[in-house]
Specification:
The protein has about 450 residues and is of the alpha+beta class. The chain is about 25% helix and about 25% strand. The strands form five sheets. Strands 13, 14, 15, 16, 17, 18, 19, 20, 22 and 23 form a ten-stranded antiparallel sheet that branches. It has a four-stranded antiparallel sheet with strand order 6-5-4-7, with no helix packed on it. It binds FE2/S2 (inorganic) cluster and fe (iii) ion (FE).
Length: about 450
């Protein structure tokens, strides 16, 4: 098969107001391999929340692309991240998802590492007749070259030359703050998570997490159920879910950012249905009126390539891990203010279960839809997809009034009625995808002088 240059998979012609993505980006195994090397191995990747490893010797395991990673707080309280592969023969050392341990002993031949990644014992070393050359090698776990955090979100990179995290997040930060500043003592994951796989490409989740257009069709049954609950005062009243149909007359919009990030937002018709509503006074006193009001709006953000924070029917953080061109693992956490009152926490959990949990109303509908798309992409005549065009004529370069009020400058802004259900929010992700894939194929660094600081709108 003839492999096209990455840039030709994304037909991006701002001057003609054309943006199309070729269906091969979701199916081609060669592109999938390149994505691992040129995107996941070279960008920042979310590793975990600082509050997940609150105590010395706490750890969580995760991945960067295909690389298993263990994020640990050592005995002195310092946070480190390591490749979770034994220096002996490469077995994954730490196999639990999270826990607390001073030492990690590889189950294969018993090499041991402490919580600072240092090799603390090679089983039967004295009897091993090792040559002096062996002692010259480090036997410690391989440290990730870069690890940084922003407001409790810990990111790591396999790329020593990745730009600083704050620069990577850039102007998106005020929107990220609207999720991470909700609690006066920071944010945590509610214990537990949903992990599931779907048989389709990871970028389907990247798009769908920002896709208002599918709500009234894919999730029509959920919208009807919530209306019936309201009318009949029956069903899952504990979720106190807002009536989505009341949103349809609301104003909403989107912002795009450099490095592939984007955000969508929608005014909230029923702010009293948000579990942070009872804390509104505290939030307003702490952060001011503008930001407090923005916390009540619905906001979804994508931090390229595979982190999304959605604050709609619940506040969730999700990552999507590419397993193959046609297989993805999802990991979804319910996020909450640290120290939240028990009754608010219960309400939050009921909302999370209702929609975003693997058994909720959203997930089965969305994953079935992703798999239907993946089946459709097998159709050779399909070619370029038209699902990136809604709203393209309404995008304005730079900051609109909303961005200015929050004090940031995006690449592009858009505001309109909900019915617009824009698809322009997808552009930044594919622009960055094409940029990183082209840079990788050309042997250029991922970030450097050739990097376009702001893609055109
Ligand atoms: Fe870990 Fe052998 S692979 S001890
Ligand atoms: Fe959905």
């Amino acid at each position: 098969m003839q492999i096209k240059a990455a840039s030709s998979h994304v037909d991006d012609r701002p001057q003609d107001q054309v943006f199309r993505v070729h269906s091969d980006v979701f199916t081609d195994p060669a592109l999938f391999e390149d994505e691992q090397r040129f995107i996941f191995d070279r960008t920042w990747n979310f590793l975990g929340l600082d509050s997940q490893i609150g105590k010395p010797n706490d750890f969580v395991t995760t991945t960067i692309g295909r690389t298993p990673v263990v994020l640990m707080r050592d005995a002195t309280g310092a946070i480190n991240a390591f490749v979770n592969a034994c220096r002996h023969k490469g077995a994954m050392v730490c196999r639990a998802e999270q826990g607390n341990s001073k030492y990690h002993v590889c189950p294969y031949h018993g090499w041991a590492y402490d919580s600072a990644g240092k090799n603390s014992g090679i089983k039967d070393q004295e009897a091993g007749r090792y040559a002096p050359a062996f002692d010259l090698d480090s036997h410690d776990l391989i440290r990730l070259p870069r690890i940084e955090q922003y407001k409790g979100l810990i990111f790591g990179s396999l790329n020593p030359d990745v730009i600083p995290l704050e620069q990577f997040l850039g102007e998106l930060r005020p929107l990220l703050d609207l999720a991470m500043d909700q609690g006066p003592h920071g944010m945590e994951f509610v214990p537990g998570r949903a992990v599931y796989t779907y048989d389709a490409n990871w970028k389907l989740q990247m798009d769908n997490g920002m896709d208002y257009y599918h709500l009234t069709s894919t999730h029509a049954s959920f919208m009807e159920v919530v209306e019936r609950r309201e009318a009949a005062q029956a069903g899952n009243q504990e979720a106190r879910q807002f009536n989505w149909k009341k949103r349809l007359s609301q104003q909403g919009g989107m912002f795009t950012f450099p490095h592939g990030h984007a955000a969508i937002w929608l005014d909230q018709a029923q702010p009293e249905k948000r579990p942070i509503y009872p804390a509104f006074e505290e939030i307003r006193n702490r952060l001011g009126e503008v930001r407090a009001q923005w916390m009540l709006k619905l906001r979804n953000i994508t931090i390229f390539p595979n982190l999304q924070i959605a604050d709609s029917t619940a506040l969730i953080l999700r990552t999507f891990r590419p397993l193959a061109a046609n297989r993805t693992e999802m990991r979804v956490y319910c996020m909450a203010p640290i120290g939240e009152a028990a009754e608010l926490r219960a309400w939050r959990l009921r909302q999370f279960e209702d929609f975003f949990n693997a058994s909720g109303f959203a997930t089965p509908d969305d994953t079935a839809t992703f798999e239907a798309c993946q089946a459709g992409y097998q159709a050779a005549p399909l070619g370029y997809l038209q699902g990136y065009a809604r709203g393209i004529a309404s995008v304005q370069p730079g900051a609109n009034e909303e961005a200015a009020a929050l004090g940031f400058t995006p690449v592009g802004s858009l505001k309109d009625g909900f019915q617009l259900q824009n698809e322009a929010c997808f552009h930044s992700g594919y622009r960055e995808w094409a940029r990183l894939m082209s840079a990788g194929a050309a042997g250029q660094p991922a970030y450097g002088s050739h990097e376009t600081a702001a893609a055109p709108e």
